[in-house]
Task: structure prediction
Amino acid sequence: MSKRATVDDIHATALGMPHVTVAKPGPRPVYQVGSKSFVFFRTPRPDAFDPATGERYDDVIVFWVGSEGDKLALVQDETTPFFTTPHFDGHPSVLLRASRVGEVSRDEIVELVQDAWLAQASARRGQTWLREHDLDSS
Result:
């Protein structure tokens, strides 16, 4: 298994993908491909909060996923720190608190960011990237 993931791994992987722009540079960047967000750092919102204190989480990161099945696989696995909220019902994304990024491996975070990019990139860009990395496109 690879080393534990860091928030810097998320930034580096997102920025390393082709055709990426940063819509909101700064402490809460929004990474986009073709004007579509694929990873973004949210401001505190009422839907994601500490159940014990009611305090809004100020470190939520949103990752797009390829399908509802991909989302469910991540959020229903109690061994992972991924979650969702009712606000994201029907939305192809999963949430992760920055404070819990180290609970997953760097390889898993890299794959999650790459999959998020693939979920939002055009079919042509996605196929090109997969081909250049000798990955199966199915």
Summary: The two ends are 25 Å apart (CA to CA). The chain has four helices and five strands. The mean pLDDT is 94.
